[in-house]
From TrEMBL:
Pfam families: ABC2_membrane_3
Subcellular location per the Swiss-Prot or TrEMBL entry: Membrane
UniProt keyword Transmembrane helix, yes or no: yes
Species whose genome carries this gene: Streptococcus oriscaviae
InterPro entries: ABC-2_transporter (IPR052902), ABC2_TM (IPR013525)
Keywords, sorted A to Z: Membrane, Transmembrane, Transmembrane helix
Protein name per the record: ABC transporter permease
Length: 353
């Protein structure tokens, strides 16, 4: 027990001194979270405003539009006045006396809303109902309060990537115990100190420090940036733990490859985590949809996609159906990676130390 505690303390200090761990695990996720908050906070807070329209006085729309609460209406006496307002871009559309819409562009949200109201008005009038009795309670635009911000999906993918940055600590731990890569490894292999105790303590340190980094990121996002992303904390913590477990196991498997240098292993870890995060939609949701279309099997079993999807479902949709699948797949990945790491690390032989 004493050897375990001593090696745990040593490894914790050594890991925190690692520049790659400090930057990629602690600082980089915080920087990305800040970037997301600055870049995306205004996109999803937009509200539907009144649409400026010009309407001929003789049109039935002059009676209907005020009832909808959607339009800032300007009454005009003739077509020339309405067209002038439209060309001056003071209104989004002009409705003539026959309730026909004239616009500069056929595309866009506002023309679609105007067209929808006019279409509903025309259909009811064809049934013989007077325009004054039109029911616009079923508005084509409806605003609802949501518990979570739509940009939360980007933060879930960020947390998924941050979990897999536990690979860096695991790689460093593997390098320490390999005598051909570190002087400490040579001393450990020639001493009575049990390698299994060192590996167990390094695993504990890597998991613990990365989970602490994830909690720091959580506190920063929730309490500093004021973005509420974890409505179900217990399920979310379970997923983050499984993500850290999977990332740590992959780090050990990569770090146990004897012939690769430390810089090469770190570079592979950076490329792998960023590629998986990119495919999961961390940079763009369009990329995510494209991956699902082109390579659906890869998208389904991409560990970061699994984490992102399940975190979104649990916290935004209150849907736990995918929770068992996510934890099971991540657990299987971790077991396979640990088995590979064990196979690579055990019974190594060296000509000289």
């Amino acid at each position: 027990m004493t050897d375990f505690l001593r090696s745990t303390l040593y490894l914790a200090k050594a890991t925190l001194r690692e520049k790659s761990f400090t930057f990629w695990v602690l600082l980089f996720p915080l920087l990305l979270a800040t970037f997301y908050h600055v870049a995306l906070s205004n996109i999803f807070s937009a509200k539907v405003e009144s649409i400026p329209v010009a309407v001929r006085e003789e049109s039935f729309a002059a009676y209907v539009f005020p009832e909808t609460g959607l339009f800032d209406m300007t009454l005009v006496e003739n077509d020339e006045e309405g067209i002038d307002l439209l060309e001056a871009k003071k209104v989004e559309a002009y409705v003539n006396k026959d309730s026909e819409m004239v616009v500069n562009s056929l595309t866009g949200v506002n023309p679609s809303i105007i067209r929808s109201v006019l279409s509903q008005m025309e259909q009811i009038m064809l049934l013989g109902d007077a325009a004054n009795y039109l029911d616009f309670s079923n508005s084509p635009v409806r605003q609802e309060e949501q518990k979570t911000n739509p940009m939360a999906v980007y933060f879930y993918s960020l947390f998924a990537m941050a979990c897999f940055y536990s690979m860096f600590g695991a790689i460093s731990s593997c390098i320490i115990i390999q005598p051909n890569l570190s002087t400490l490894g040579a001393r450990l292999n020639s001493s009575p100190f049990k390698k299994s105790t060192f590996i167990l303590s390094s695993f504990f340190v890597t998991m613990g420090l990365t989970m602490m980094a994830n909690l720091l990121l959580y506190a920063y996002v929730v309490y500093i940036l004021k973005v509420q992303v974890f409505l179900q904390p217990l399920e979310s913590l379970l997923l983050l733990f499984m993500g850290n477990l999977c990332g740590t196991a992959l780090g050990y498997a990569l770090g146990a490859i004897e012939k690769l240098k430390e810089a090469t292993k770190t570079m592979i870890a950076v490329l792998l985590t960023n590629f998986l995060a990119f495919a999961a939609g961390m940079m763009s949701l369009q990329v995510r949809f494209l991956v699902y279309k082109v390579a659906p099997l890869f998208a389904k079993y991409n560990p970061m996609s699994i984490l992102t999807d399940t975190l979104y479902q649990v916290n935004n949709l209150a849907n736990r159906d995918n929770l068992l699948f996510a934890t099971s797949v991540l657990g299987v990945y971790a077991l396979l990676a640990l088995a590979l790491a064990t196979l690579l690390l055990r019974r190594n032989r060296y000509d000289s130390l």
